[in-house]
TrEMBL record:
Residues 65-330 form the FAD-binding FR-type domain. This is Methionine synthase reductase. One of its GO terms (molecular function) is flavin adenine dinucleotide binding. The keyword Flavoprotein applies. The keyword Oxidoreductase applies. One of its GO terms (biological process) is methionine biosynthetic process. It comes from the Eukaryota. Keywords: FAD, Flavoprotein, Oxidoreductase. It is an enzyme of class 1 (oxidoreductase). InterPro entries: CysJ-like_FAD-binding, FAD-bd_FR_type, Flavoprot_Pyr_Nucl_cyt_Rdtase, FNR_nucleotide-bd, NADPH_Cyt_P450_Rdtase_alpha, Riboflavin_synthase-like_b-brl. Signal peptide: none annotated.
Length: 466
Protein backbone atom coordinates (compact mmCIF):
# COMPACT_ATOMS: atom_id res chain seq x y z
CA UNK A 1 0.00 0.00 0.00
CA UNK A 2 1.39 3.44 -0.96
CA UNK A 3 2.25 5.54 2.07
CA UNK A 4 0.64 8.90 2.72
CA UNK A 5 3.13 11.37 1.21
CA UNK A 6 2.56 13.93 3.96
CA UNK A 7 3.49 11.45 6.70
CA UNK A 8 6.46 10.11 4.73
CA UNK A 9 7.80 13.60 4.04
CA UNK A 10 7.70 14.40 7.77
CA UNK A 11 9.41 11.14 8.69
CA UNK A 12 12.03 10.99 5.94
CA UNK A 13 15.60 11.39 7.22
CA UNK A 14 17.51 12.15 4.04
CA UNK A 15 20.85 11.34 5.65
CA UNK A 16 19.80 7.67 5.77
CA UNK A 17 19.54 7.73 1.97
CA UNK A 18 23.06 8.98 1.27
CA UNK A 19 25.58 6.30 0.32
CA UNK A 20 29.25 6.63 1.23
CA UNK A 21 30.19 5.92 -2.40
CA UNK A 22 28.24 6.56 -5.58
CA UNK A 23 28.86 7.87 -9.07
CA UNK A 24 27.26 11.24 -9.72
CA UNK A 25 25.25 11.20 -12.94
CA UNK A 26 26.17 13.53 -15.76
CA UNK A 27 24.16 16.73 -16.14
CA UNK A 28 22.18 17.40 -19.29
CA UNK A 29 22.36 20.79 -20.98
CA UNK A 30 19.65 23.27 -20.08
CA UNK A 31 17.32 24.24 -22.94
CA UNK A 32 14.96 26.95 -21.66
CA UNK A 33 15.20 30.29 -19.91
CA UNK A 34 12.48 32.49 -18.43
CA UNK A 35 12.17 36.21 -19.14
CA UNK A 36 9.59 38.54 -17.57
CA UNK A 37 8.08 41.11 -19.92
CA UNK A 38 7.25 43.81 -17.39
CA UNK A 39 6.56 44.39 -13.72
CA UNK A 40 2.77 44.28 -13.83
CA UNK A 41 0.05 42.03 -15.23
CA UNK A 42 -1.34 42.85 -18.67
CA UNK A 43 -5.00 43.96 -18.49
CA UNK A 44 -6.05 42.35 -21.78
CA UNK A 45 -4.27 39.15 -20.83
CA UNK A 46 -6.08 39.03 -17.48
CA UNK A 47 -9.43 39.29 -19.28
CA UNK A 48 -8.60 36.10 -21.18
CA UNK A 49 -10.13 33.43 -18.93
CA UNK A 50 -9.19 30.46 -21.10
CA UNK A 51 -7.29 27.48 -19.75
CA UNK A 52 -3.58 27.88 -20.44
CA UNK A 53 -3.51 25.00 -22.90
CA UNK A 54 -6.40 26.52 -24.88
CA UNK A 55 -4.01 29.34 -25.81
CA UNK A 56 -1.57 26.94 -27.46
CA UNK A 57 -2.22 26.82 -31.20
CA UNK A 58 -2.29 23.41 -32.88
CA UNK A 59 -1.97 21.57 -29.57
CA UNK A 60 -3.09 17.96 -29.95
CA UNK A 61 -5.30 16.14 -27.44
CA UNK A 62 -5.04 12.33 -27.12
CA UNK A 63 -7.54 10.44 -29.30
CA UNK A 64 -9.66 13.55 -29.96
CA UNK A 65 -12.36 13.16 -32.61
CA UNK A 66 -11.66 16.53 -34.22
CA UNK A 67 -8.98 19.27 -34.16
CA UNK A 68 -11.35 21.84 -32.61
CA UNK A 69 -11.72 19.70 -29.56
CA UNK A 70 -12.21 21.44 -26.24
CA UNK A 71 -15.71 22.39 -25.16
CA UNK A 72 -16.89 24.02 -21.95
CA UNK A 73 -19.70 21.88 -20.58
CA UNK A 74 -22.02 22.79 -17.71
CA UNK A 75 -22.30 20.48 -14.72
CA UNK A 76 -25.98 19.70 -14.15
CA UNK A 77 -25.87 17.41 -11.14
CA UNK A 78 -23.36 16.00 -8.67
CA UNK A 79 -24.19 12.91 -6.65
CA UNK A 80 -22.11 10.88 -4.19
CA UNK A 81 -23.00 7.21 -4.67
CA UNK A 82 -20.67 5.92 -1.94
CA UNK A 83 -18.85 7.75 0.85
CA UNK A 84 -15.33 6.61 1.72
CA UNK A 85 -15.05 5.59 5.37
CA UNK A 86 -11.29 4.99 5.54
CA UNK A 87 -11.85 1.36 6.53
CA UNK A 88 -14.01 -0.90 4.37
CA UNK A 89 -14.38 1.71 1.63
CA UNK A 90 -11.11 3.54 0.92
CA UNK A 91 -12.58 5.23 -2.16
CA UNK A 92 -15.77 7.20 -2.64
CA UNK A 93 -17.80 6.82 -5.84
CA UNK A 94 -19.29 9.90 -7.47
CA UNK A 95 -21.60 10.51 -10.42
CA UNK A 96 -21.61 13.78 -12.37
CA UNK A 97 -24.25 14.68 -14.93
CA UNK A 98 -23.36 17.11 -17.75
CA UNK A 99 -25.70 19.30 -19.80
CA UNK A 100 -24.86 19.23 -23.54
CA UNK A 101 -28.19 20.55 -24.84
CA UNK A 102 -26.68 23.68 -26.40
CA UNK A 103 -23.53 22.03 -27.75
CA UNK A 104 -23.57 21.26 -31.45
CA UNK A 105 -22.57 17.85 -32.81
CA UNK A 106 -22.06 16.31 -29.37
CA UNK A 107 -23.17 12.78 -30.19
CA UNK A 108 -22.16 9.55 -28.51
CA UNK A 109 -22.96 5.87 -28.07
CA UNK A 110 -22.75 3.79 -24.87
CA UNK A 111 -19.12 2.88 -24.26
CA UNK A 112 -17.72 6.06 -25.81
CA UNK A 113 -15.33 8.13 -23.71
CA UNK A 114 -14.57 11.77 -23.03
CA UNK A 115 -11.35 13.50 -22.06
CA UNK A 116 -11.54 16.09 -19.27
CA UNK A 117 -8.76 18.68 -19.14
CA UNK A 118 -8.05 19.53 -15.48
CA UNK A 119 -6.09 22.18 -13.67
CA UNK A 120 -3.82 21.65 -10.71
CA UNK A 121 -5.06 22.24 -7.18
CA UNK A 122 -4.79 25.91 -6.18
CA UNK A 123 -3.09 25.10 -2.87
CA UNK A 124 -0.41 23.11 -4.72
CA UNK A 125 0.11 26.03 -7.11
CA UNK A 126 0.51 28.45 -4.19
CA UNK A 127 3.03 26.10 -2.57
CA UNK A 128 5.09 25.97 -5.75
CA UNK A 129 5.03 29.75 -6.12
CA UNK A 130 6.37 30.00 -2.58
CA UNK A 131 9.10 27.37 -3.02
CA UNK A 132 10.18 28.87 -6.35
CA UNK A 133 10.21 32.38 -4.83
CA UNK A 134 7.67 33.60 -7.39
CA UNK A 135 4.87 34.77 -5.11
CA UNK A 136 5.40 38.43 -6.06
CA UNK A 137 5.60 37.62 -9.77
CA UNK A 138 2.88 34.97 -9.96
CA UNK A 139 0.70 36.99 -12.35
CA UNK A 140 3.37 38.88 -14.27
CA UNK A 141 3.64 38.21 -17.98
CA UNK A 142 6.63 36.18 -19.05
CA UNK A 143 8.01 34.20 -21.97
CA UNK A 144 10.12 31.07 -22.21
CA UNK A 145 12.93 31.12 -24.75
CA UNK A 146 15.16 28.41 -26.15
CA UNK A 147 18.71 28.90 -24.95
CA UNK A 148 20.05 27.67 -28.27
CA UNK A 149 18.38 26.72 -31.53
CA UNK A 150 18.94 23.17 -32.71
CA UNK A 151 17.07 20.26 -34.25
CA UNK A 152 17.02 18.52 -30.87
CA UNK A 153 15.50 21.40 -28.91
CA UNK A 154 11.91 22.46 -29.49
CA UNK A 155 9.67 24.90 -27.71
CA UNK A 156 7.17 22.93 -25.57
CA UNK A 157 3.86 22.94 -27.45
CA UNK A 158 1.77 22.97 -24.24
CA UNK A 159 3.22 26.28 -22.96
CA UNK A 160 1.62 29.52 -24.27
CA UNK A 161 3.90 32.00 -26.05
CA UNK A 162 3.00 34.59 -23.42
CA UNK A 163 2.02 33.33 -20.01
CA UNK A 164 2.46 33.80 -16.26
CA UNK A 165 4.07 31.57 -13.63
CA UNK A 166 0.64 30.90 -12.13
CA UNK A 167 -0.84 29.82 -15.45
CA UNK A 168 2.06 27.47 -16.22
CA UNK A 169 1.84 25.82 -12.81
CA UNK A 170 -1.95 25.68 -12.74
CA UNK A 171 -2.77 24.61 -16.31
CA UNK A 172 0.23 23.27 -18.17
CA UNK A 173 2.43 21.02 -16.02
CA UNK A 174 1.63 17.75 -14.29
CA UNK A 175 2.88 18.73 -10.84
CA UNK A 176 2.48 15.11 -9.72
CA UNK A 177 4.36 13.60 -12.63
CA UNK A 178 6.87 10.83 -11.90
CA UNK A 179 10.29 12.39 -11.26
CA UNK A 180 13.00 11.01 -13.50
CA UNK A 181 16.52 10.53 -12.21
CA UNK A 182 17.93 13.19 -14.53
CA UNK A 183 15.54 15.77 -13.07
CA UNK A 184 16.54 14.86 -9.51
CA UNK A 185 20.19 15.12 -10.50
CA UNK A 186 19.63 18.60 -11.93
CA UNK A 187 17.68 19.71 -8.85
CA UNK A 188 20.83 19.09 -6.80
CA UNK A 189 22.44 22.03 -8.64
CA UNK A 190 19.89 24.36 -7.09
CA UNK A 191 20.39 23.36 -3.45
CA UNK A 192 22.51 25.31 -0.97
CA UNK A 193 22.54 22.67 1.79
CA UNK A 194 25.15 19.92 1.38
CA UNK A 195 22.82 17.21 2.73
CA UNK A 196 20.13 18.16 0.21
CA UNK A 197 22.71 18.09 -2.58
CA UNK A 198 24.08 14.69 -1.55
CA UNK A 199 20.61 13.19 -1.12
CA UNK A 200 19.47 14.19 -4.62
CA UNK A 201 22.74 13.15 -6.24
CA UNK A 202 22.63 9.79 -4.48
CA UNK A 203 19.04 8.77 -5.29
CA UNK A 204 19.61 9.79 -8.93
CA UNK A 205 22.78 7.68 -9.22
CA UNK A 206 23.05 4.12 -10.47
CA UNK A 207 24.08 2.92 -7.02
CA UNK A 208 21.08 4.67 -5.43
CA UNK A 209 18.48 2.92 -7.59
CA UNK A 210 16.98 1.06 -4.62
CA UNK A 211 16.44 4.38 -2.81
CA UNK A 212 14.94 5.91 -5.97
CA UNK A 213 12.56 2.97 -6.31
CA UNK A 214 11.49 3.24 -2.67
CA UNK A 215 11.00 7.00 -2.51
CA UNK A 216 9.86 7.93 -6.01
CA UNK A 217 8.21 4.81 -7.43
CA UNK A 218 6.84 2.94 -4.40
CA UNK A 219 5.94 5.92 -2.20
CA UNK A 220 5.04 8.23 -5.11
CA UNK A 221 7.10 11.20 -3.93
CA UNK A 222 6.24 14.23 -6.07
CA UNK A 223 8.28 17.34 -6.79
CA UNK A 224 6.43 19.18 -4.03
CA UNK A 225 7.43 16.44 -1.58
CA UNK A 226 11.06 16.82 -2.67
CA UNK A 227 10.96 20.60 -2.21
CA UNK A 228 9.51 20.15 1.28
CA UNK A 229 12.10 17.50 2.14
CA UNK A 230 14.99 19.56 0.72
CA UNK A 231 14.12 23.11 1.84
CA UNK A 232 17.28 24.63 0.35
CA UNK A 233 16.26 23.52 -3.15
CA UNK A 234 15.03 26.45 -5.24
CA UNK A 235 14.95 25.55 -8.93
CA UNK A 236 13.90 28.00 -11.65
CA UNK A 237 10.47 27.60 -13.22
CA UNK A 238 12.12 26.98 -16.59
CA UNK A 239 13.65 23.79 -15.20
CA UNK A 240 10.19 22.49 -14.27
CA UNK A 241 8.97 23.21 -17.80
CA UNK A 242 11.92 21.22 -19.16
CA UNK A 243 11.39 18.16 -16.95
CA UNK A 244 7.77 17.86 -15.80
CA UNK A 245 5.30 16.23 -18.21
CA UNK A 246 2.37 18.04 -19.74
CA UNK A 247 -0.87 18.08 -17.74
CA UNK A 248 -2.97 15.72 -19.87
CA UNK A 249 -6.73 15.15 -20.05
CA UNK A 250 -8.19 12.28 -18.03
CA UNK A 251 -10.35 9.67 -19.75
CA UNK A 252 -13.84 8.84 -18.45
CA UNK A 253 -16.43 6.42 -19.81
CA UNK A 254 -19.90 7.74 -20.54
CA UNK A 255 -22.41 6.00 -18.27
CA UNK A 256 -25.57 6.91 -20.20
CA UNK A 257 -27.53 6.14 -23.34
CA UNK A 258 -28.53 8.93 -25.73
CA UNK A 259 -31.83 7.09 -26.20
CA UNK A 260 -32.72 8.08 -22.61
CA UNK A 261 -31.76 11.73 -23.08
CA UNK A 262 -29.41 13.05 -25.76
CA UNK A 263 -29.13 16.41 -23.97
CA UNK A 264 -27.25 15.07 -20.97
CA UNK A 265 -24.91 12.29 -19.94
CA UNK A 266 -23.19 11.04 -16.81
CA UNK A 267 -19.78 9.80 -15.77
CA UNK A 268 -18.97 7.74 -12.68
CA UNK A 269 -15.58 7.76 -10.99
CA UNK A 270 -13.90 6.77 -7.75
CA UNK A 271 -11.83 9.06 -5.53
CA UNK A 272 -9.15 7.91 -3.10
CA UNK A 273 -9.63 9.24 0.43
CA UNK A 274 -5.90 10.15 0.49
CA UNK A 275 -3.90 11.61 -2.40
CA UNK A 276 -6.71 11.80 -4.98
CA UNK A 277 -5.78 12.27 -8.62
CA UNK A 278 -5.53 15.74 -10.17
CA UNK A 279 -8.72 15.49 -12.24
CA UNK A 280 -10.83 13.69 -9.65
CA UNK A 281 -9.81 16.25 -7.02
CA UNK A 282 -10.86 19.04 -9.37
CA UNK A 283 -14.20 17.32 -10.03
CA UNK A 284 -14.66 16.75 -6.30
CA UNK A 285 -14.69 20.54 -5.84
CA UNK A 286 -17.97 20.65 -7.85
CA UNK A 287 -16.98 23.06 -10.65
CA UNK A 288 -19.79 24.76 -12.57
CA UNK A 289 -18.15 23.87 -15.89
CA UNK A 290 -15.41 21.57 -17.15
CA UNK A 291 -13.35 21.48 -20.34
CA UNK A 292 -13.83 18.27 -22.26
CA UNK A 293 -13.82 16.64 -25.67
CA UNK A 294 -15.20 13.48 -27.22
CA UNK A 295 -12.59 10.82 -27.83
CA UNK A 296 -12.45 8.66 -30.93
CA UNK A 297 -14.84 5.69 -30.63
CA UNK A 298 -13.58 2.13 -30.63
CA UNK A 299 -15.14 -1.32 -30.49
CA UNK A 300 -15.84 -1.06 -26.74
CA UNK A 301 -19.41 0.11 -27.29
CA UNK A 302 -23.02 -1.06 -27.52
CA UNK A 303 -25.19 0.04 -30.44
CA UNK A 304 -28.36 -1.17 -32.13
CA UNK A 305 -26.16 -3.49 -34.21
CA UNK A 306 -25.35 -5.37 -30.99
CA UNK A 307 -28.98 -5.73 -29.90
CA UNK A 308 -29.49 -9.31 -31.11
CA UNK A 309 -26.03 -10.47 -30.02
CA UNK A 310 -25.01 -11.81 -26.61
CA UNK A 311 -22.65 -9.99 -24.27
CA UNK A 312 -20.57 -11.07 -21.30
CA UNK A 313 -19.70 -7.98 -19.27
CA UNK A 314 -16.93 -8.08 -16.66
CA UNK A 315 -16.27 -5.12 -14.35
CA UNK A 316 -13.64 -4.99 -11.62
CA UNK A 317 -14.37 -2.11 -9.25
CA UNK A 318 -17.64 -0.27 -8.66
CA UNK A 319 -16.82 2.61 -11.02
CA UNK A 320 -15.81 0.14 -13.76
CA UNK A 321 -19.53 -0.44 -14.23
CA UNK A 322 -19.88 3.00 -15.86
CA UNK A 323 -19.94 1.95 -19.55
CA UNK A 324 -22.16 -1.05 -18.82
CA UNK A 325 -24.83 1.17 -17.27
CA UNK A 326 -25.01 2.91 -20.64
CA UNK A 327 -25.13 -0.46 -22.42
CA UNK A 328 -28.08 -1.64 -20.33
CA UNK A 329 -29.94 1.67 -20.60
CA UNK A 330 -29.56 1.44 -24.38
CA UNK A 331 -30.74 -2.16 -24.48
CA UNK A 332 -33.77 -1.34 -22.32
CA UNK A 333 -34.74 1.53 -24.65
CA UNK A 334 -34.37 -0.65 -27.74
CA UNK A 335 -36.60 -3.31 -26.15
CA UNK A 336 -39.24 -0.71 -25.21
CA UNK A 337 -39.15 0.83 -28.69
CA UNK A 338 -39.67 -2.55 -30.31
CA UNK A 339 -36.32 -2.93 -32.05
CA UNK A 340 -36.34 -5.63 -34.70
CA UNK A 341 -35.31 -9.12 -33.67
CA UNK A 342 -34.98 -10.78 -30.28
CA UNK A 343 -32.74 -9.15 -27.70
CA UNK A 344 -29.53 -11.05 -27.03
CA UNK A 345 -28.49 -12.28 -23.60
CA UNK A 346 -26.43 -10.02 -21.33
CA UNK A 347 -24.45 -11.46 -18.43
CA UNK A 348 -22.65 -9.29 -15.91
CA UNK A 349 -19.81 -10.34 -13.61
CA UNK A 350 -18.88 -7.49 -11.27
CA UNK A 351 -16.38 -7.21 -8.43
CA UNK A 352 -16.39 -4.64 -5.64
CA UNK A 353 -15.32 -4.44 -2.02
CA UNK A 354 -18.97 -4.70 -0.90
CA UNK A 355 -22.51 -4.62 -2.32
CA UNK A 356 -22.65 -0.90 -1.49
CA UNK A 357 -19.54 -0.30 -3.65
CA UNK A 358 -21.30 -1.54 -6.80
CA UNK A 359 -22.62 1.59 -8.49
CA UNK A 360 -26.39 1.62 -9.09
CA UNK A 361 -26.79 -1.92 -7.80
CA UNK A 362 -30.53 -1.43 -7.25
CA UNK A 363 -30.93 -0.45 -10.92
CA UNK A 364 -29.00 -3.56 -11.94
CA UNK A 365 -31.41 -5.67 -9.91
CA UNK A 366 -34.37 -4.03 -11.67
CA UNK A 367 -32.84 -4.78 -15.06
CA UNK A 368 -32.31 -8.36 -13.91
CA UNK A 369 -35.99 -8.68 -12.97
CA UNK A 370 -37.03 -7.36 -16.41
CA UNK A 371 -34.60 -9.59 -18.37
CA UNK A 372 -32.68 -6.61 -19.69
CA UNK A 373 -29.86 -8.17 -17.68
CA UNK A 374 -30.07 -11.96 -17.85
CA UNK A 375 -27.43 -13.02 -15.33
CA UNK A 376 -25.85 -10.97 -12.53
CA UNK A 377 -22.96 -12.48 -10.57
CA UNK A 378 -21.16 -10.31 -8.03
CA UNK A 379 -18.01 -10.65 -5.93
CA UNK A 380 -17.28 -8.74 -2.73
CA UNK A 381 -13.62 -8.79 -1.77
CA UNK A 382 -14.01 -7.31 1.72
CA UNK A 383 -17.41 -8.70 2.66
CA UNK A 384 -17.36 -12.27 1.29
CA UNK A 385 -20.07 -13.37 3.69
CA UNK A 386 -22.66 -11.37 1.74
CA UNK A 387 -25.47 -13.58 0.46
CA UNK A 388 -24.88 -15.36 -2.86
CA UNK A 389 -21.55 -13.69 -3.58
CA UNK A 390 -17.95 -14.69 -4.17
CA UNK A 391 -14.94 -12.97 -2.69
CA UNK A 392 -13.07 -12.39 -5.96
CA UNK A 393 -14.21 -12.21 -9.54
CA UNK A 394 -11.92 -15.03 -10.67
CA UNK A 395 -13.73 -17.28 -8.18
CA UNK A 396 -17.05 -16.35 -9.78
CA UNK A 397 -15.71 -17.11 -13.26
CA UNK A 398 -14.27 -20.45 -12.15
CA UNK A 399 -17.46 -21.45 -10.31
CA UNK A 400 -19.56 -20.66 -13.39
CA UNK A 401 -16.96 -21.92 -15.82
CA UNK A 402 -19.15 -24.30 -17.84
CA UNK A 403 -22.05 -21.94 -18.60
CA UNK A 404 -19.62 -19.02 -19.00
CA UNK A 405 -17.51 -20.83 -21.62
CA UNK A 406 -20.58 -22.28 -23.36
CA UNK A 407 -21.83 -18.72 -23.94
CA UNK A 408 -18.39 -17.35 -24.83
CA UNK A 409 -17.91 -19.95 -27.57
CA UNK A 410 -21.09 -18.93 -29.36
CA UNK A 411 -20.29 -16.94 -32.54
CA UNK A 412 -22.73 -14.14 -31.63
CA UNK A 413 -21.14 -13.52 -28.20
CA UNK A 414 -18.74 -10.70 -27.36
CA UNK A 415 -16.91 -10.33 -24.05
CA UNK A 416 -16.16 -6.92 -22.53
CA UNK A 417 -13.66 -6.34 -19.72
CA UNK A 418 -13.49 -3.03 -17.84
CA UNK A 419 -10.88 -2.89 -15.09
CA UNK A 420 -8.78 -0.45 -13.10
CA UNK A 421 -5.33 -1.32 -14.43
CA UNK A 422 -3.74 -3.54 -17.05
CA UNK A 423 -2.50 -5.98 -14.38
CA UNK A 424 -6.07 -6.80 -13.37
CA UNK A 425 -7.01 -7.21 -17.02
CA UNK A 426 -4.09 -9.62 -17.53
CA UNK A 427 -5.14 -11.62 -14.45
CA UNK A 428 -8.69 -11.87 -15.79
CA UNK A 429 -7.38 -13.07 -19.14
CA UNK A 430 -5.39 -15.78 -17.37
CA UNK A 431 -8.54 -16.91 -15.53
CA UNK A 432 -10.55 -17.00 -18.75
CA UNK A 433 -7.80 -19.07 -20.40
CA UNK A 434 -7.91 -21.55 -17.51
CA UNK A 435 -11.69 -21.83 -17.87
CA UNK A 436 -11.31 -22.45 -21.61
CA UNK A 437 -8.59 -25.03 -21.03
CA UNK A 438 -10.71 -26.90 -18.47
CA UNK A 439 -14.05 -26.84 -20.29
CA UNK A 440 -12.93 -27.78 -23.81
CA UNK A 441 -9.90 -29.82 -22.72
CA UNK A 442 -7.11 -27.91 -24.44
CA UNK A 443 -3.63 -26.77 -23.42
CA UNK A 444 -3.17 -23.36 -21.84
CA UNK A 445 -1.24 -22.17 -24.90
CA UNK A 446 -4.16 -23.10 -27.15
CA UNK A 447 -6.53 -21.15 -24.92
CA UNK A 448 -4.23 -18.12 -25.16
CA UNK A 449 -4.30 -18.40 -28.95
CA UNK A 450 -8.10 -18.45 -28.89
CA UNK A 451 -8.11 -15.20 -26.91
CA UNK A 452 -5.65 -13.68 -29.42
CA UNK A 453 -8.02 -14.62 -32.23
CA UNK A 454 -10.95 -13.16 -30.31
CA UNK A 455 -9.08 -9.86 -29.98
CA UNK A 456 -8.41 -9.76 -33.72
CA UNK A 457 -12.10 -10.43 -34.38
CA UNK A 458 -13.17 -7.74 -31.86
CA UNK A 459 -14.96 -10.46 -29.92
CA UNK A 460 -12.72 -9.78 -26.88
CA UNK A 461 -12.92 -6.09 -25.96
CA UNK A 462 -11.08 -4.31 -23.16
CA UNK A 463 -11.19 -0.93 -21.47
CA UNK A 464 -8.72 -0.38 -18.67
CA UNK A 465 -6.95 2.60 -17.17
CA UNK A 466 -4.19 3.30 -14.67
Amino acid sequence: MVADNVELEKALDINKYILSKYTVSKLLDRTLELRFLDNSPDLDWNLDCRHGQEKCLDLQYPFARSPSTLTRVNVKDFKILLEADGQLHTKSITEIKFDVKKIRDFTWQPGNTIGILPHNDESDVEDFLKYLNLENKADNLCVFQLMQESKKTKYPSHIPNRTTPREVLRDCLNLRGVLKKQFLRTLAEYCSDISDVSFLKCISSKEGSAYYNEIILQNAFTLLDILKTCPSCQPPLSLLVEHLPRLLPREYSIASSPLINSNEFSIIFSIFSTNPGITTKMLQSKPAQVLMYLRQPNKFCYTEDDFQNDQILIAVGGAALAPYLGFLQHKQCLIEKGASGVAGKTWLFVGGVSPQAIAHRSQLMQWLSKNVLNKFIESHSRSPSATNSYQYIHEALNANSKVFIDLLLQPQTSIYICADGSQISAALEATICKCLSKEINIEQSEAQNIIKDYRRQNKYREDFWC
